[in-house]
């Protein structure tokens, strides 16, 4: 799902708004007006473009991004599942709806090393809590699942992000 | 590439990049849960999405929480300073901006682990990299607004290390509700 599906192509003005807001919104009573002033645009245009990007899925959401670790969610497990291809789409949707799953994808297998095609990121306050989440997913997948594993992250080696360039 | 060296802000990517982690390298764990009071919790639970787009969005959001505009702004400022929040604002979807990010993994021999991590991390396309407990013990995401540069980065890693890079591009992404409850 990497191709732009929305049909909305970002123009130069959109990209200026992205660059001005990707680190965060100004913490002032009129944040969109502050962005507009910084960019020499009208506030109405900034808000209209942000709403358009949100409707097109370019902006996933606007709000607070919690730091899982600071909130005690220190167990971060990548659960991976070998799910029958003909069921993986429907079951993946259901796994994505579970309240403790933060990301859910189908990805290619690399046999024989890697038989798993469904990836679900789990977050809990302990590995025990994550193990209970894994059990819930296993129950949901039932016999469509041939095997699974959970890969805990034990160390962050690098953490930055994509830089939007022109 | 580190966030500190980049003149422009970094763009949080989707996929694994959404997972807000401390920027510091090192062991995971610890927390400041105790510093979060009941009002903070209500703010955190209510405002992970749906922040209004209007002239006075803090005022509008504060009303639904029974707060006033200024105290909501101050609390968000404090939660950011305490790193309870990793960010506040729009969360952009790199895929929909013509960008791409691809998950990849390697099975790195323990005795070479640090050197390989250094070689992988040195590439600006590598957005994040985690050690995980598995035969495939290094998992990283390459992100760029050019698809070609991702494949080039993977090939450079393979040439530099002599180890295969297993690519795990998204074939399908499932909709996920956002609901970290605190």
Question: Can you give keywords for this protein?
Answer:
heterodimer; A: 166 residues; alpha+beta; Arc Repressor Mutant, subunit A; Alpha-Beta Plaits; 2 domains; four-stranded antiparallel β-sheet; 5 helices; 36% helix; 27% strand; elongated; B: 182 residues; 30% helix; disordered N terminus
Give the helix proportion of chain A (percent range).
Answer: 25-40%
Which sheet architecture does the biggest sheet of chain B show?
Answer: 4 strands, antiparallel
End-to-end gap of chain A: 23 Å
Q: Biggest sheet of chain A: strands side by side, in what order? A: 3-4-2-5
Q: What is the makeup of the main sheet of chain A?
A: 4 strands, antiparallel
Please, how many domains of chain A?
2
Overview in brief:
The complex is a heterodimer of chains A (166) and B (182). Chain A has 166 residues and is α+β, with helices and mostly antiparallel strands.
Give your account of this protein's structure.
The complex is a heterodimer of chains A (166) and B (182). Chain A has 166 residues and is an alpha+beta fold. Chain A folds into 2 domains: 2-55, Orthogonal Bundle (Arc Repressor Mutant, subunit A), CATH 1.10.10; 75-152, Alpha-Beta Plaits (2-Layer Sandwich). In chain A, 36% of the residues lie in helices and 27% in strands. Chain A has 5 helices and 5 strands. Chain A has a 4-stranded antiparallel beta sheet, with helices on one face. In chain A, α1 packs across α2. The longest helix of chain A is centred in the last third of the chain and has 15 residues, at 127-141. The two termini of chain A are 23 Å apart. Chain B is α+β, with helices and mostly antiparallel strands and 182 residues long. Helix content of chain B is 30%, strand content 19%. Chain B contains 5 helices and 6 strands; from the N terminus they run αααββαββαββ. Chain B has helices at residues 38-46, 57-65, 69-81, 113-121, 147-161, and strands at residues 85-92, 100-106, 126-132, 138-144, 166-168, 172-173. A 4-stranded antiparallel beta sheet of chain B has the order 3-4-2-5. In chain B, β3 and β4 form a beta hairpin. The longest helix of chain B is centred in the last third of the chain and has 15 residues, at 147-161. The two termini of chain B are 33 Å apart. At the A-B interface, α1, α2, α3, β1 and α4 of A face α2, α3, β1, β2 and α4 of B. β5 (145-159) of chain A pairs antiparallel with β3 (126-132) of chain B.
């Amino acid at each position: 799902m990497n191709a732009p599906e929305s049909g909305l192509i970002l123009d130069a003005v959109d990209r200026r708004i992205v660059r001005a807001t990707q680190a965060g919104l100004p913490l002032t009573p009129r944040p969109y007006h502050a962005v507009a002033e910084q960019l020499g645009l009208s506030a109405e245009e900034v808000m209209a473009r942000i709403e358009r990007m949100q409707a097109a899925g370019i902006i996933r959401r606007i709000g607070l991004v919690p730091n899982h670790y600071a909130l005690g969610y220190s167990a971060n497990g990548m659960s991976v599942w070998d799910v029958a291809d003909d069921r993986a789409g429907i079951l993946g949707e259901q796994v994505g709806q579970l309240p403790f799953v933060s990301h859910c994808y189908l990805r290619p297998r690399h046999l024989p090393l890697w038989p798993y095609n469904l990836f679900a990121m789990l977050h809990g306050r302990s590995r025990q809590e994550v193990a209970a989440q894994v059990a819930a997913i296993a129950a949901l997948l039932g016999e469509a699942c041939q095997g699974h594993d959970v890969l805990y992250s034990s160390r962050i080696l690098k953490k930055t992000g994509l830089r939007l360039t022109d | 590439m580190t966030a500190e060296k980049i003149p422009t802000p970094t763009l949080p990517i989707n996929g694994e990049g959404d997972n807000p982690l401390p920027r510091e390298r090192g062991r995971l764990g610890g927390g400041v849960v105790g510093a979060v009071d009941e009002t903070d919790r209500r703010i955190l639970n209510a405002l992970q999405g749906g922040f209004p787009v209007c002239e006075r969005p803090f005022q509008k959001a504060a009303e639904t929480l029974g707060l006033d505009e200024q105290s909501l702004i101050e609390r968000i400022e404090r939660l950011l300073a305490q790193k309870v929040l990793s960010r506040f604002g729009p969360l952009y979807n790199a895929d929909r901006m013509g960008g791409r990010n691809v998950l990849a993994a390697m099975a790195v021999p323990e005795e070479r682990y640090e050197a390989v991590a250094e070689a992988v991390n040195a590439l600006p396309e590598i957005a994040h990299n985690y050690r995980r407990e598995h035969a495939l013990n290094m998992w990283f995401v390459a992100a760029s607004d050019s698809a070609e540069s991702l494949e080039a980065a993977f090939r450079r890693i393979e040439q530099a290390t002599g180890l295969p890079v297993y690519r795990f591009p998204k074939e399908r992404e499932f909709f996920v509700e956002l609901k970290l409850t605190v």
